[in-house]
Amino acid sequence: MNRSEFNQGLRGGLVIALSSAPFAVLFGAVASDNGLTVMEAGLMSATVYAGASQLVGIELFGHHVAPWLIVLSVFAVNFRHILYSAALTRFIAHFSPVQKFFAFFVLTDPQFAEAVKHGESGGRISFPWYIGFGAAVYFPWLFFSVVGAFFGRMMGDPRTLAIDVLLPVYFLGLVIGFRRKPGFYPVVAASALGSVLGYHFVGSPWHVSIGAALGVIVAALLPLPPESVPVTAASETES
How confident is the model at residue 158 (pLDDT cuts 50, 70, 90)? Predict the structure, then answer.
């Protein structure tokens, strides 16, 4: 394993780990508030590793909802990861099957955003860089989830501290990072409209998938951006 690339990924992931730490603490506190032990909250973070889906699942567990509905609700929230994996595949086609398994396991919103930016800027996405970035986010997420679960009962309802606002702010920052891409504004507008209408007429968490689907449809209907033609020595001579 290339240690320098691994360390580069670690450094990039630590920034994300610090920004997502309050969100991990929020999950731990909500898990504790809904009756999970510290070990159960840590195990859920270690195996599910999907912040928004973990919160949805915990809330539904607390309301004693049927298991099949919990599974469908988590799928609705995580539907975007199907789109993430499809968009990321072209950058990690050289990964082995085992490497792809771990790559998709640690695939989160910031992991996807950074990997796509890295790939589109011309850089080769190596497995050491990718897994280093993922490890830097994964293990702090586990740690702060356990911390939130341990101190959750002392904290009381985390919403009274307005910690729950961190999630939409966090996702908004990720979305804004793609604002220079072609078709950004119509796709975002369509997704936002679809989410609002879905929330009003269908309810949560299905509005997440509805907004994503509408954004995908609009993106598919938009004309493809012109590809930049590389300037070759021959073309320079002809001009």
Answer: low
